[in-house]
Amino acid sequence: MLSAQVEVPAFHPALENPEALRRFFESLARLEDGDAQDDVLIAQFGDSHTAADIGTSAVRRALQTRFGDGGRGFVALGRPWSNYVQEGVRGGMTREFVGERGKFSLGQFVGDGRYGLAGFAIQTTRKRGRAWSDLSSPSSRIDVAYLEQPGGGSFDVFVDGTKKGHISTRAGTARSAFHAFDVGEGPHHVEARVKGDGAVRIFGLDLDRSKAGVVFETLGINGARATTMLQWQEPHMAEQLRHHPPDLVMLAYGTNEAGDDTPASVYERQLHDALSRIARAVPSAACLILGPPDREIETPQGWVTSPKLIEITETQRAVAKASGCAFFSQLDAMGGPGTLAIWVGEPQPRARRDYVHLTREGYTQLGQAFATDMLRAYSTFRGDSGLVSTR
Q: Are 249 and 45 in contact, with CB atoms under 8 Å apart?
């Protein structure tokens, strides 16, 4: 283990092509100057780093502290997988419900590709199923997202123990559907109770507040890759994104791809395809690719950064530039290749001994570094645009 005297790498500015964020920064400026009626929405898709909602929660706090809290945004109802936990969200469900996000069988994806905004859902065809979420983040409007479909069943929605409404999901064709409830401002317990009269698939909840502010949605799936969203039905994905169009879409993948043998040229095309789907669905949204943090492999010489991860990072950087997106290198922000081994060996480790994931301290510091770079670029935008400085 390294001694406490070992000097660890500092965080480094790592945001590239911030000019691609101009429309997003314009929305932030209207919000900060009191000219906005709507929230500024950020949607981050990603893998387990995103799903953990630790680094992302640090970014959320930083942006909402400056621009206002518009609400928690999209979260799961129930528990789509066993260790699903996010900031301010604790869910559960009875055994009648199961998680659904499709799967691979014999190398082929099996599923209908309709899994909601985050790419996962809970569903049941059985009676007496219940799913719930305790939401400590305040909200005044709760929008339930679900699938309408032939043979669809129905469910009741309870908020803080009081029945708020009845939802039927039966329809002639499969399509996205939403049902919003106004509630008193504050934290809430939300529960769905199915009637057992057909299949019910629930995507989750969108939590909004009456005042405009920043909403940062964390849409991560353990084990996900950029190709994960290519398995979703594109019209369905577009329905979900257009329901509350984001001002900024962030893709935060790469860690799992670093363990694959996909050629760089194929990965480049896949990443382009994912960005193209987003651009077709919400053409007004700015885009940013968030490169993966360090991932290391064991060699006879010790732990070293995976060469594949470096290749993935460079491919993402090139695709971001070609697609008109900003790019943030988490690898560079940490201090470059070899940083993770140092973090693992610290007296208070910032990385876990799997040499893939970070600890809460590591994720938080990396999230703060990203937020600092983002706000610095926004301040530069204000100055270049002739707007009065707010900081």
A: yes
Contact predicate 74/206, CB 8 Å: yes
Q: What residues does 287 pair with on adjacent strands?
A: 249
CA distances from 279 to 49, 217, 265 (A): 24, 18, 21
pLDDT reported for residue 389:
75
Residues 360/348, Cβ–Cβ less than 8 Å: no
For the stretch 87-119, what's the b/e string if a residue is b when 16 or more beta carbons lie within 10 angstroms of its beta carbon?
bbbebebeebbebbbbeeeeeeeeeebbbbbbb
Order of strands across the sheet with 214-220? 15-16, 326-328, 286-290, 248-252, 40-46, 214-220
Burial per residue of 278-310, b for 16 or more beta-carbon CB atoms within 10 angstroms, e otherwise: bbebbeebbbbbbbbbbbbeeeeeebebbebbb
| Sign of the four-CA dihedral 340, 359, 292, 261 | positive
The β-bridge relationship of strands 154-159 and 326-328 is unpaired
- Which of the residues in the chain have pLDDT under 50? 1-9
Q: Which amino acid is at 157?
A: V
- Are 370 and 21 in contact, with CB atoms under 8 Å apart? no
d(CA 144, CA 200): 13
